[in-house]
Recover the amino acids of this structure.
């Protein structure tokens, strides 16, 4: 299935039919990475050195190519065929054909507190393994305990059930608003009419 949706890197370098400016696409992504990985919280000096010295040099040399590649990859991931495949995956996951097309029931037993704590610890260890050694040495510390503590702090925002619910609702609202903008417009008109 993955091979159906792969694309050639040569497509990224084809000339655009529409004149588009790609400058500045990396800046918000860099801010997002900093927010998730808490880089400036652990080592402000190293983060400042990267922002003021290394990043401008990389941006000067290959900024346009990086920005163009990021925009093209995002357009590919958010294309009509990709969104259709995402929806198909969600439908197949929730309404399995082997269940007669019925909604997947949640008959699984609840996890105990010990099991939840073990899952949290395992997730933190996996995230700590994914962090590059050079970045962890500069930002989080050299010992394994420092890396594990940093991974736990990175995962903390995902443990809030209420925030996760709001995040999922906002993402669904944004997707539906893009797919069917008339739903968003009619909903806002109905709510303004009810307030009058």
């Amino acid at each position: 299935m993955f091979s159906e949706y792969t694309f050639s890197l040569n497509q990224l370098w084809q000339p655009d039919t529409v004149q588009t400016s790609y400058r500045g696409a990396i800046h918000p992504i860099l801010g997002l990475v900093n927010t998730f990985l808490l880089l400036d919280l652990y080592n402000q000096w190293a983060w400042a050195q990267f922002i003021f010295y290394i990043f401008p040099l990389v941006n000067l040399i290959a900024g346009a190519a990086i920005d163009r590649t990021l925009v093209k990859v995002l357009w590919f991931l958010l294309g009509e065929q990709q969104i259709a495949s995402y929806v198909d995956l969600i439908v197949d996951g929730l309404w399995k054909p082997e269940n007669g097309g019925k909604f997947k029931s949640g008959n699984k037993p609840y996890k105990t507190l010990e099991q939840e704590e073990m899952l949290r610890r395992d997730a933190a260890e996996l995230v700590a393994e994914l962090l590059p050694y050079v970045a962890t040495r500069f930002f989080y510390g050299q010992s394994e305990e420092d890396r594990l503590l940093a991974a736990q702090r990175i995962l903390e925002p995902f443990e809030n059930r209420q925030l996760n619910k709001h995040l999922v609702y906002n993402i669904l609202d944004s997707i539906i608003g893009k797919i069917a903008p008339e739903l968003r417009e009619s909903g806002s008109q109905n709510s303004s009419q009810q307030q009058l």
User: Anything to note?
Assistant: The chain is about 70% helix and 0% strand. Confidence is low (pLDDT under 50) at residues 1-13. The two ends are 51 Å apart (CA to CA).
